[in-house]
């Protein structure tokens, strides 16, 4: 038995010197120390020996087992280190190589226009307020002086959610005026960006689009203030002395009211499908806040006055960037978006 132990030790020492992978090392371990390994089998054979011989041989086997176990651990550590070093050499990073180009996104043109408009009006002392996209009939229509038979209340023009307790997708950001005036007493100077929804779709209209509403309420506010603010805004969003025109109009929540048009940038006023051959594009609606609207929120129209205006962001972007179809803003094609 002792000769067998010495032979086993010699073979192990010879094999462990030539092993060069962790997998091969594991095979050696299993062949010696596994359930069916040679050392394990020798331990089972001890039961057939005499007591004195069993003690002597058992001690030799345990010494060999300890020796093999320590040698395997040492060799495993060496092989793991070699493997890591080889992988580091193989996967070495050359820091002198140019880096991979990281694709950078861009801000959506409508978001760019929204940020630019907010910046313009912030310079005039306006603060930003936001309202809900799902609105009650009261805030969207009644409080803004819309009569019950107004066409905008028709389901062909407005996306109603239910009729029992009328709720709808807001058709304009004007309802936020009411929320603001209910919470804050004049003077109020605020712009209200938001997403709005109308049953309307063609080359220059979309069922979903964005607006920024403006509201200024204080003592002695006049139409001259409104005109000055609008001229300042259009001069900054387009260019100095951009051709514009004001047309008398009607909105239930303003009196008097105007439509503000800008010369079509697509055809330069000659007439095209975008401007419907008129040479002008309606850019915003505005007017002096109707006294009934002020009364609805507890503001005395005999003391306070104000003006309001609503701007379509997609229309501003169309004019600034010369885009000929509003649907391009929502298609999200890379060839279009990468231009911005």
What is the fold's blueprint, element by element?
Elements: H1 2-18, H2 22-33, H3 38-45, H4 51-90, H5 109-122, E1 127-128, E2 134-136, H6 137-140, E3 160-162, E4 167-169, H7 175-183, E5 188-197, E6 208-218, H8 223-237, E7 244-251, E8 254-263, E9 280-289, H9 291-296, E10 305-312, H10 313-321, H11 328-331, H12 334-337
Parallel strand pairs: 1-5
Antiparallel strand pairs: 2-4, 3-4, 5-6, 6-10, 7-8, 8-9, 9-10
Keywords:
340 residues, 2 domains, alpha+beta, three-stranded antiparallel β-sheet, seven-stranded mixed β-sheet, 12 helices, BirA Bifunctional Protein, domain 2
Q: Give the SSE order as H and E letters.
A: HHHHHEEHEEHEEHEEEHEHHH
- As residue ranges, the low-confidence spans are none
Span of the ends, CA to CA:
85 Å
Helix/strand structural class: alpha+beta
- Helices, by number, come to 12
CATH architecture of the largest domain: 2-Layer Sandwich
Taking all Cα atoms into account, the compactness measure Rg is 41 Å
What would you call the shape? elongated
Count of discrete domains: 2
Report the top-level CATH class of the largest domain. Answer: Alpha Beta
**Multimerization state:** single chain
Instruction: Specify the helix fraction band.
Output: 40-55%
Main sheet overview: 7 strands, mixed
What is the spatial order of strands in the main beta sheet? 1-5-6-10-9-8-7
């Amino acid at each position: 038995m002792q000769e067998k132990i010495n032979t086993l030790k010699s073979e192990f020492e010879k094999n462990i010197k030539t092993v060069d992978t962790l997998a091969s090392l594991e095979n050696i371990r299993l062949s010696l120390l596994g359930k069916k390994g040679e050392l394990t089998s020798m331990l089972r054979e001890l039961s057939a020996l005499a007591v004195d011989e069993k003690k002597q041989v058992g001690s030799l086997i345990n010494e060999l087992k300890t020796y093999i176990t320590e040698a395997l651990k040492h060799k495993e550590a060496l092989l793991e280190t070699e493997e890591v070093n080889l992988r580091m050499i193989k996967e070495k990073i050359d820091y002198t190589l140019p880096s991979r180009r990281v694709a950078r996104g861009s801000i959506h043109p409508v978001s760019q226009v929204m940020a630019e408009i907010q910046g313009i009006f912030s310079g005039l002392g306006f603060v930003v307020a936001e309202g809900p996209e799902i609105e009650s009939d009261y805030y969207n229509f009644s409080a803004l002086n819309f009569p019950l038979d107004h066409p905008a209340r028709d389901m062909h023009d407005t996306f109603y959610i239910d009729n029992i307790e009328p709720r709808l997708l807001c058709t304009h950001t004007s309802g936020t005026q009411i929320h603001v005036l209910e919470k804050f007493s004049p003077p109020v100077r605020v712009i209200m960006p938001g997403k709005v929804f109308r049953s309307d779709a063609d080359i220059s209209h979309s069922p979903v689009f964005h607006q920024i509403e403006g509201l200024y309420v204080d003592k002695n506010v006049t139409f001259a203030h409104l005109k000055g603010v609008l001229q300042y805004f259009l001069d900054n969003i387009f260019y100095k002395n951009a051709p514009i025109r004001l047309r008398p109009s009607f909105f239930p929540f303003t009196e008097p009211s105007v439509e503000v048009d800008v010369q079509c940038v697509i055809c330069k006023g000659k007439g095209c499908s975008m401007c419907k051959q008129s040479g002008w594009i309606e850019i915003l609606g505005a007017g002096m806040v109707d006294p009934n609207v002020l009364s609805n929120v507890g503001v005395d129209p005999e003391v306070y006055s104000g003006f309001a205006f609503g701007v379509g962001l997609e229309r501003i972007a169309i004019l600034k960037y010369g885009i000929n179809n509003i649907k391009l803003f929502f298609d999200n094609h890379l060839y279009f978006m990468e231009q911005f």
